[in-house]
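How a chain folds remains the central question behind the approach discussed here. This step matters because it turns folding into a mapping between discrete strings. The sequence in question and its structure tokens are set out directly beneath this paragraph.
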Amino acid sequence: TTASSSHQVISSETLPIYLIDTSNINHTNVAVSTWGEISTNWNRTTQYSNLLSLATAVPSLPNQYNSDINNEKRRQIILIHCGPKVGSTTLREACAKNLQRTCPQIDFKTYLNGRERRARTPAGYFGGDRLVSLMNECVDTHYFCTKEITVMDLLPSANTTTTTTSEESDTVTITAAELSQNVEYIHLFPFRNYNDWVKSAIKQQHDRAGEKGCLAAKKLWDGGKC
């Protein structure tokens, strides 16, 4: 999605979805479909190859981010969505290390709030104003890991400044206009087969807490909470 004052929002059904096929180590194939086509054919047994079969091969990803708006270079932000069924500890750790490397002006040992520390996530992982503030501060960072956010979470009304209080009572000042003009957001969704994820999640509960962990997962399942 591209954020600009003149950009027209398209419907979710026709939103282009690019699929990257890296099965060939000598060549990366790119294919494109629409969210309407993908979503109606995606169920718990779907494999990535099934989604690729619905898409049309294209030479490469679109190069729109090289375009200028008002003679200004667009900033490219890649949001790696780590929501249910796709998030992994390894991916979150990689995002945290990337933040430390590309945004050294922030001391992340003290910057992380209580929720982020308890969940062992990178800063801004839970979205909201905290993520927007982080993207404003870390101008040399192009990759951010998030849990569950929508595009509109990132596009508050332009030319406004909002002051909010986070969970840890830190005051955060956000200049909304900075992230609603001349920014291209690329949303990256790691694929994972649902049934494979379920097996892995159950195994993780056993690895962490043995039979107690399995019983806790069963209780959530019986209560309709998972």
Observations:
- Helices lie at 35-39, 48-53, 89-102, 108-111, 114-119, 128-137, 194-222.
